[in-house]
Design goal:
Elements (H helix, E strand, L loop, with lengths): L1 H8 L3 E4 L1 H8 L25 H15 L5 E5 L16 E5 L17 E5 L22 H20 L5 E7 L2 E8 L2 E5 L2 E2 L4 H13 L2 H4 L5 E4 L4 H7 L11 H8 L7 E8 L2 E7 L4 E2 L9 E6 L8 E10 L7 H10 L8 E11 L2 H8 L10 E8 L4 E2 L6 H22 L1 E2 L8 E8 L6 E7 L6 E2 L21 H5 L7 H19 L7 H10 L1 E4 L3 E4 L1 H5 L14
Parallel strand pairs: 1-7, 4-5
Antiparallel strand pairs: 2-3, 3-4, 5-6, 6-7, 6-8, 9-10, 10-11, 12-13, 13-14, 14-16, 15-16, 17-19, 18-21, 19-20, 22-23
Helix pairs in contact: 1-4, 11-13
Length: 557
């Protein structure tokens, strides 16, 4: 599973004792009941047997105790979310009273406030509360499977809601463990016996239910928009408006008006103030929990009647003292009149929304380099709404679009001293610009987008901002893959353009390749292990590279 790599193998998880976990994330609150309130609370919940038999008994015990205030628990183990493509469901969830309760035991990832998961047979978990074992992570096979499954629940919440973090409770037979996910990693508590010490779990549930929305993880700059509200109806009105047939931005926006997804009003910093944008279903969602978690939206800017549709990028950028905001980079490119790049409208960090898992790790290892990366919530709005490169109609337009992006890359380097450093299929967009006068096929301009990994060429002599590879694995040059600490140079970027061309030609155009899936995997996805830990490109990509391998170069920025 992907998460066995990102959390377990890379050790992006840290354990705290129960007491320290609560102090860090849910400290004592005014009006909190005393411990005797929770006596015998979970006696009716069995310790073993079928997990599904435990779910309703656990839910009844918590709901009848009256400790959740404006929330309630619901059994959601029967059906996945109707519109979730991976058909994922969880055992029990906490929801706000007044919302439409999950029907038929169906998980609603757009509304869930707390995920509760039951795992009966987990004797391999370390049961200590000793804080000296705070950097604990289990190496058992069962625990690796668990680390693969449970973060996927947090990933489902992050993809459907606008939250900074998400809490999970794992019931392990007669024990429990608390978890908190953010985009830097996982902090989890030591295991405790919730049957013998019901106050520990009861205290967590009470504090979470009575905490502020921000403490529970809610993003106050994202406000839910009901399709029946005035703003929701204003969005829906675009479905019936009569506009030119070539108004593709309106068509793209209408396609996002999916009632199976939550709609939002997002605030984005604009100088000293803010602008608001209405969005529905994302056009792009990056998978996983740890990392940038980028989402893209075709957004409605109701303050701009002449150009109402723009593109909003919502992500968690890696924090580094030399990292520049993507919007600032685009502003420089726009100032230098670099062609075929997005036009920045507004952008900025979301105030007060920074991951904390890395700070917890660092506090426990003050003399070690933190292996978790700090991430800051960031939003960017650009004027252009592009189509994915895979929508190109023929080989002529594919080559033409890549030439446009090569021009953008060259101008950015020569006019603004900026190198992109992440040439990939996902970062090249199509902008419709009419049709061919003869065959009436659509014509497109290419736009080179996603400049968040770019750098100014004057930084070449400085040490690396991040100790891992920059760019997208499938399209990195052979040299960049074989020498991950080498600087990305123009030759590497040009080779990446070739890999984009090859990828699209084999996938979408007529060719003579006998085994497409095998070639695509061996050339673009496969890697080879070098020594004990280093991972490099496949032999096929190395030996068939169109460019000669340059000498090993100095350290990457």
């Amino acid at each position: 599973m992907r998460w066995q790599t990102t959390v377990h193998s890379l050790k992006l998880a840290i354990m705290l004792s129960y007491g320290k976990f609560m102090t860090e994330f849910l400290p004592p609150a005014e009006g909190e009941p005393n411990d005797s309130t929770y006596d015998n609370m979970f006696d009716a919940v069995p310790e073993d047997g079928k997990e599904q038999d435990m779910h309703p008994l656990f839910v009844d015990a918590v709901n009848h105790a009256g400790i959740l205030g404006n929330f309630f628990l619901a059994v959601t183990d029967a059906l996945p979310n109707r519109t979730y493509p991976k058909r994922r469901k969880t055992d029990v969830g906490m929801y706000r009273k007044g919302t439409v309760p999950p029907t038929g035991g169906r998980t609603d990832w757009a509304a869930i406030e707390l995920t509760v998961v039951f795992k009966v047979h987990y004797d391999q978990y370390n049961s200590t509360d000793d804080e000296s074992d705070a950097d604990h992570h289990s190496s058992s096979v069962d625990c690796e499977d668990d680390l693969g499954q449970i973060p996927s629940y947090a990933g489902s919440v992050f993809s459907r809601q606008h939250v900074t973090h998400h809490f999970v409770v794992i019931i392990l037979g007669d024990c429990a463990r608390l978890e908190r996910f953010d985009h830097a990693g996982l902090v989890f508590s030591s295991k405790f016996n919730y049957k013998q010490e019901p106050a520990k779990l009861g205290q967590f549930l009470w504090r979470l239910a009575h905490a502020s929305p921000e403490t529970r993880g809610r993003d106050p700059t994202a406000v839910y928009v009901s399709p029946t509200s005035p703003e929701g109806l204003e969005m829906l009105a675009w479905e019936t408006k009569t506009l030119p047939a070539d108004d593709y931005t309106r068509q793209l926006f209408v396609k996002t008006l999916d009632r199976g997804w939550a709609w939002w009003k997002l605030k984005v910093r604009d100088g000293d103030g803010y602008k608001e944008f209405l969005v529905a279903k994302p056009t792009f969602i990056a998978p996983g929990v740890v990392g940038r978690a980028t989402r893209g939206y075709v957004a409605y800017d109701k303050s701009n009647k002449d150009r109402p549709f723009v593109y909003v990028k919502d992500c968690w950028r890696v924090v580094h003292e030399r990292s520049e905001l993507e919007g600032d980079i685009l502003a420089v490119l726009n100032q230098h009149e670099v062609s075929n790049v997005p036009t920045v409208l507004c952008h900025g960090d979301v105030e007060g929304q920074r991951t904390v898992s890395q700070d917890v790790w660092a506090s426990l290892h003050p003399t070690k380099e933190c292996r978790m990366k700090a991430h800051q919530h960031y939003r960017l709005v650009v004027n252009e709404v592009g189509l994915p490169l895979k929508k190109f109609p023929n080989g002529r337009e594919l080559v033409s679009v890549l030439v446009d992006c090569l021009e953008a890359h060259e101008e950015a380097y020569t006019k603004a001293n900026i190198m992109h450093r992440d040439i990939s299929v996902g970062n090249i967009l199509l902008i419709p610009c009419g049709e061919h006068p003869v065959d009436k096929q659509p014509l497109y301009k290419g736009m080179l987008a996603d400049w968040e990994s770019s750098k100014r060429t004057g930084y070449n002599e400085l040490e690396a901002r991040h100790p891992d590879r920059n760019g997208t694995w499938q399209f990195l040059s052979v040299n960049a893959l074989r020498h991950p600490k080498a600087q990305i140079e123009i030759a590497d970027e040009l080779e990446s353009f070739f890999h984009v061309l090859l990828y699209c030609a084999i996938r979408f155009l007529p060719h003579t390749c006998d085994d497409v899936s095998r070639f695509m995997y061996d050339f673009f996805d496969r890697g080879e292990t070098v020594g004990r830990s280093r991972y490099t490109c496949s032999i096929l990509k190395w030996k068939r590279s169109p460019l000669p391998l340059p000498r090993r170069r100095r350290t990457q920025v």
